[in-house]
Amino acid sequence: MTNQETDNGTTRDDLLQRVALMETMIAEGRKSTARYGWIFVMWGLIYFVAMGWAVFLPFKDWAWPVCVTVGVLVGIVRVRRKRAHGAAENQRSRSIEAVWQAMCVAIILYVIAAAVSGHGNQSAYYAAVFFFVGLAHGISARILRWGVQGLVAFIWWGCGIALFFFNTRNEVLFIFLAAAFFGMILFGLYAMMLERRRAAALVQHHA
Amino acid sequence: MPELPELDPVVHGKLRLAVLSLLIGVEDADFTWLRQKTGSTDGNLGAQMLKLEEAGYVAMEKRFAGRKPQTVYRMTPAGREALAAYVAALKQLLGTAL
Question: For residues A80 and A198, what is the distance between their CA atoms, to the nearest angstrom?
Fold first, then answer.
């Protein structure tokens, strides 16, 4: 194939470069417009801390309300800071944010109500939290058409079901830590790796 | 022989084309996000955005995110039409250059 000049005065290579540029930028604009992998890692760690507190420390009914509230506040501050450094919005990003925001509100209300009424230390209580988290992952996976996140939803739901059948203190602890590790920390690290790879590809494109 | 189409010079500029391609996938985007995605400088991007605004292809809005001022851009219907026409012209030109 030659780099012959079109009748318009531009070369074929020049036009092909424009096509490639458009494809890259359209894909970039349509991707989820923010980086959220760190949030999953943070929540995974918060779950570990909250569970450790609920099992090993006093005032166990307050472990979840306190840890979840701290997590939400840290999340809000970090998201606001990141947005100050540039943001774009599309229907997809807004849908995903809405799902996770609604899930956060639901969990906060749920854990506070459970703590106040003294129902905060039963396996069914934890199972409900798992189903909330699995639901948010499942909806995000459908919106993003992302199989890995769909798998994460099933991890949470599977662990939620398991809690109804294995409900000694050690079993609950083990299931919870497994869900937090695979369904949050590991998934968050994977998402962060993909985000970095995408950012590196974009830098390479501009170079 | 069919007449070859003209490429819209406003759309054809590399940075302007990159911005329009980004904006078509989002509802709106702030200046900083566009600068990050295109890897351009403040001055260059600002100048190109002005050209797109003058052509009526993007609309600009100043607003505040908390206390920070933000310049937000969105693509206008005229911008969408111009990009669609540009793509059609590109297809035709590439077809003749084969």
Answer: 22
pLDDT in tens, B31-59: 988 998 888 899 999 999 999 999 999 99
Whether this model's ipTM surpasses 0.90 comes out as no
- Residue A78 with chain B: CB contacts under 8 Å: none
A89 bridge partner residues? B28
Query: Which of B21, B25, B96 is facing A90, going by the closest CB pair?
Result: B25
Question: What are the backbone dihedrals phi and psi of residue B65, each rounded to the nearest 5 degrees, phi first?
Answer: -110, 100
Are the CB atoms for A4 and B98 separated by under 8 Å? no
Suggest the residue from B22, B34, B42 to mutate for an interface test with chain A (most A CBs closer than 10 A).
Answer: B22
How many of the other CB atoms lie within 10 Å of CB of B94? 15
* Average pLDDT of span A193-201: 75
Cα distances from A205 to residues A22, A24, A31, A176, A198, in angstroms, run 12, 9, 16, 42, 11
